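Quick one, tokens below:
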């Protein structure tokens, strides 16, 4: 599933509940290229395409749902994503000596931050983040989706690709739209 098809199905959910999906206009190719230069790596094609279609959403407008969880995640703008990535880099040294490892999953590199991690969705002021992993562990794949969760603090594997996340997300959303939209 590509992001355009995902948005069509997501809009149908929003429309069915007389809610508005408020997406920002897409980022320009020049902005994407500048971001990739700043990051030092090309953003995975499917995540890049998502930002070209919509540069995030207005706050309190969930766009993603992590499979198996009830939380709706806002789509971060490219600028917000880079800011959250920078915040993670600044926060990571505080975890030195933390009793629990960030992850024990060989698909994810050890540690609390890696240059190839790029958030694209968040909840609760970045207490929960979904990230495209451009620097996976030895059993991982570039572009896999991982998550940062605060309390308990952990980095976990979510999906093998952005496309797989979209499929899992829309199944969760269509299965419980009231929860996703906060209409309970």
């Amino acid at each position: 599933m590509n992001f355009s098809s995902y948005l069509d199905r997501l809009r149908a959910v929003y429309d069915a509940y007389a809610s508005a999906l408020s997406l920002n206009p897409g980022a320009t190719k020049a902005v994407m290229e500048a971001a990739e230069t700043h990051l030092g790596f090309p953003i995975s094609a499917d995540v890049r395409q998502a930002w070209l279609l919509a540069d995030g959403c207005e706050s309190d407008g969930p766009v993603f749902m992590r499979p198996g969880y009830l939380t709706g995640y806002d789509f971060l703008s490219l600028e917000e994503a880079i800011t959250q990535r920078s915040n993670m880099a600044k926060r990571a040294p505080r975890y030195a000596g933390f009793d629990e490892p960030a992850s024990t999953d060989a698909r994810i590199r050890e540690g609390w931050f890696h240059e190839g991690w790029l958030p694209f969705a968040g909840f609760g002021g970045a207490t929960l983040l979904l990230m495209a992993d451009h620097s996976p562990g030895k059993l991982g794949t570039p572009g896999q989706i991982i998550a940062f969760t605060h309390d308990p603090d952990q980095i976990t594997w979510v999906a093998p690709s952005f496309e797989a996340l979209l499929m899992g997300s829309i199944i969760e959303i269509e299965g419980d739209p009231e929860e996703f939209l906060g209409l309970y």
